[in-house]
Design a protein that fits this description.
The chain is α/β, with parallel strands linked by helices. The protein is built from twelve helices and eleven strands. Helix 1 crosses helix 2.
Length: 293
């Protein structure tokens, strides 16, 4: 007797993604417009085919196992290729680039790196429809969104997280220095309390921070770098911020160079090998690199 097929069909992939996104079989069935029994049957069949349990079932719903997280991430990426297939074929045939382009970026990159690139992209390829989501650079961050199949390209801090994965392609776009920012005119800014936010001080700056005996422990944590900058302007403390964050500085703050040994941050794009081959992602990467020119 011949063995059955082991490949997952597109509908089976959609079911896996829907269960992961909604957190349960019933909610996934509603989202897909099919019966709950069909969802359960599909998931069981997928688990048999791949040879691993993909979801932990419980009273609170369905939670992906480590194998399930990987399967769902790959399912999203495969389904994304199905989505872009038509646009890719048409673009190759007539030289036009079109379709939705999903971008994840942390806040200051979304404000200052992306807009000029997207402006040029729109002028050259009006058929591309960018969708930009701001993602905090904590944990997996923007690179994690790309790996999970929720973004085609991410603007990330390089060398500090998921962008080191071998299945991601990266390219540096800017290298920015950190500087001391403090209330304008303050006679002794280093005596002020330190303001910080969770996304700050990645692995690329920690060694420098540890060597600075004048930097106190942060006494105030803010939601993001913009809030830190506002609080510094109000005289509530000092902060150490990268250049992209300081583009929003007002006359209420003063910026002091930290010297030749100051920490640096590398910012660049991350994408998968399959997304990097698509016309829209290649066009965006060209425009992002043009920012350096």
């Amino acid at each position: 007797m011949a063995a059955g097929p082991t490949e997952l069909a597109p509908q089976e992939l959609r079911v896996l993604v829907a269960v992961a996104d909604t957190g349960g079989f019933s909610a996934a069935a509603t989202a897909l417009g099919i019966g709950q029994s069909a969802v359960s049957h599909s998931v069981r069949g997928s688990e048999t085919k791949v040879g691993a349990v993909l979801f932990e079932r419980g009273r609170r719903g369905a939670v992906p196992t480590p194998a399930g997280e990987r399967a769902v991430a790959l399912a999203r990426r495969i389904l994304r290729l199905y989505e872009v297939l038509g646009a890719e074929a048409r673009g190759a045939g007539r030289g036009a680039v079109e379709g939705t382009l999903r971008i994840a970026a942390f806040r200051s990159a979304a404000l200052h790196l992306l807009p000029p690139a997207l402006e040029r992209l729109a002028a050259r390829h009006p058929g591309i429809r960018p969708e930009v989501r701001v993602v905090r650079e904590i944990g997996a961050g923007t690179a994690g969104e790309v790996l999970a199949g929720r973004a085609d390209l991410g603007i990330a801090t390089l060398g500090a997280g998921a962008d080191t994965r071998p299945d991601l392609l990266t390219g540096e776009l800017v290298r920015e220095a950190y500087a001391l920012v403090h209330p304008a005119g303050h006679p002794d800014p280093r005596s002020l309390p330190l303001l910080d936010w969770d996304e700050n001080c990645g692995s690329y700056t920690r060694a420098w921070w540890r060597a600075q005996d004048w930097i106190p422990r942060a006494t105030v944590k803010a939601e993001d770098d913009a809030m830190v900058l506002t609080m510094v302007g109000r005289g509530l403390g000092m902060a150490i911020l990268p250049e992209l964050s300081l583009k929003e500085a007002t006359e209420a703050v003063e910026i002091t160079d930290l010297g030749p040994e100051r920490p640096m941050r590398r910012v660049g794009y991350v994408t998968t090998s399959e997304s990097a081959s698509t016309l829209a992602v290649r066009a965006l990467i060209r425009e992002l690199r043009a920012n350096k020119g």
